[in-house]
Amino acid sequence: MSLALRRTLLWATALIGIYVGGWAASAPRSFYDSFPGLGLIWISIDGPYNEHLVRDVGALYLGLAAGTAFAAAQRAEAAAVVAGRVVGLAWLVFSVPHLGYHALHLDGLGAVDVVAQLVSLGSTVVLGALLLLGPERGRARTP
Q1: C-alpha distances in angstroms, 49 versus 40, 44, 53, 122?
Q2: pLDDT digit string, tens, across residues 14-60
Q3: How open is the CA angle 14-17-123, to the nearest 5 degrees?
Q4: Could you tell me how many helices (H) and strands (E) the chain has, helices first?
Q5: What predicted TM-score, i.e. pTM, was given to this entire model?
Q6: Please, what sign has the CA dihedral across residues 106, 20, 86, 3?
Q7: Residues 6 or more apart in contact with residue 18 via CB below 8 angstroms
Q8: What is the rounded CA–CA span in Å between residue 20 and residue 57?
Q9: Cβ-count burial of 9 within 10 angstroms (0-12 exposed, 13-18 middle, 19+ buried)?
Q10: What angle do CA 115, 118, 123 make, to 5 degrees?
Q11: Contact indicator for 91, 127 with CB cutoff of 8 Å
């Protein structure tokens, strides 16, 4: 993977974390009632409101976003590759069980919501997996 593509994937992943995490951490009731926005509602159908839990999820996403932005900002290719792999692994460790839970709890969602939710949650799995890839052939390998 080229350094430019790696940085693009890292920034895209960081933006996901900032969007979800910033909203959940700063306005937990709004997040619970209205996430993901655009007239879709995915959180409130899954149980009673818990401000502590919503804020913690927001902080988790913001932490992942911070690490991802740090990786994207690395100037040296080797550092960007290593940091990108670390945050890719972190996103996978979080995203695979997160996607698994939601895939098994789709009650109350319409067809559009089901597809949109699975695609959006699957996107962080795909992005995390892509970040595990090494540099392009012919480039220096990372330790």
Answers
A1: 17, 7, 8, 25
A2: 999 999 999 999 999 999 999 999 988 999 999 999 999 999 999 99
A3: 85
A4: 5, 2
A5: 0.90
A6: positive
A7: 61, 62, 65
A8: 9
A9: buried
A10: 120
A11: yes
